[in-house]
Amino acid sequence: AGSALWGGRFASGPADALAALSKSTHFDWALAPYDIRGSQAHARVLHGAGLLSDDELAGMQKALDELAADVRSGAFVPEPGDEDVHTALERGLIERAGPDLGGKLRAGRSRNDQVATQFRMWLRDGTRRVADGVLDVVDALVAQAQAHPGAAMPGRTHLQHAQPVLLGHQLAAHAHALLRDVDRLRDWDRRSAYSPYGSGALAGSSLGLDPEAVAAELGFTGSSANSIDGTASRDFAAEAAFVLAMIGVDLSRLSEEVILWATAEFGYVTLDDAFSTGSSIMPQKKNPDVAELARGKSGRLVGNLTGLLTTLKGLPLAYNRDLQEDKEPLFDSVAQLELLLPAVAGMVATLTFHTDRLAELAPAGFTLATDIAEWLVRQGVPFRVAHEAAGGCVRAAEARDVGLEDLTDAELAAVHPALDPSVREVLTVEGSIASRNARGGTAGDRVAEQLADLRTEAAAA
Ligand code: ARG
């Protein structure tokens, strides 16, 4: 059975087909540095429990330090006979410390508590890297927003022109969603920062080891309160997969807008050459591949979440080998976002906005109709009536193929007697935007405050 950790009761080694199926070193090698840190902490608690002498502890630490250096340099790698990262590293330890000393480290721990701990450690680091990348996208959005104060655009619902808004308001909406995702990652970390080390296979350790000491050494808030839960639970992984998928979905929604905005029909933005691609046949093409890959990868991230939840759904407690399927989806979600986030941040940072085009379209499609209705309400007209009247203005303007601001005084008065020429004060994009000045609204001052707050929140996140 090569370096297997469980050969004793077996007369023969595993069939080749089983060995091939069982093996996980091709992906769980990513846990190697965490496995070694766990071993270093475990050696200290074995020493604390009187199971390693001072000399043995020193010898063990020296061997583990060498092993860590060899893993880092690539001098030590898994062999074909190693089932998983834990098996490979035990082989490496024994090669360096000898079988007598090296063979002592396995006391009081199991791959079940090791892998649950190391996976949490890996994910805590991975989600921090992702959060940094998300914050770079937030910075790029806020910087673009602040670079275009006062730029108006058509706000949309149902993709139809709805009401004019500031470009900064629209960009900030994406930034808020992404900042909540970062907050979700921080919150996830608070809940996930408990170390299963010391849970053993499932029932805990009989050797007087101190799980709290290991937890503290590995940067956790504390150790698992329940050894069965410590080894069997993977809600931490599923929850992380959700937040990573949510980030993908939020990037996808932003990207879908960029894709639309970059079409000739919208003409809102031009993508920078460095963040767009050409066509192998159509020389004129400039394609929004970054945004499309973001949209596409979001499906993959959702798939990783769905796959993991499905794996977990029927599992009895405690550890089952099915749980070996937990790592690849999360490794993949983190890796995909680490590729994607810098590209999206760069794409956003280098967008050229065509503010004249945005301004020209802002009032198109009668986006100021709501402003007429609300102006009438301020004159004491019930909203139900005001809504009808504003609709009448749209009908009149549409009949003549003009904008609301082009209706004559007589036409306005004919729609409703309260519509005197002073209604024109709200028939501009600027007037409409400035009037929406309650908290959260699109008025310039409100948006400027919002962007300043976003900057503060992003810096603190
Ligand atoms: N490689 C396994 C995993 O990733 C850990 C090994 C547990 N194996 C076992 N027979 N209990 O989950």
Quick gist of this model?
By secondary structure, the protein is mainly alpha-helical. The chain is 61% helix and 5% strand. The radius of gyration is 31 Å and the shape is elongated.
Which cofactor or ligand species appear?
arginine
Beta fraction: under 5%
Number of helices: 18
Average of per-residue pLDDT values: 96
Largest sheet: 2 strands, antiparallel
Describe the structure.
By secondary structure, the chain is mainly alpha-helical. The protein is 61% helix and 5% strand. The chain is built from 18 helices and six strands. The strands form three sheets. Strands 1-2 form a two-stranded antiparallel sheet. The chain has a two-stranded parallel sheet with strand order 3-4. The protein has a two-stranded antiparallel ribbon with strand order 5-6. Helix 10 runs parallel beside helix 12. The longest helix is centred in the N-terminal third of the chain and has 37 residues, at 111-147. It is elongated and about 100 Å long. It starts with 15 loop residues before the first helix and ends with a helix.
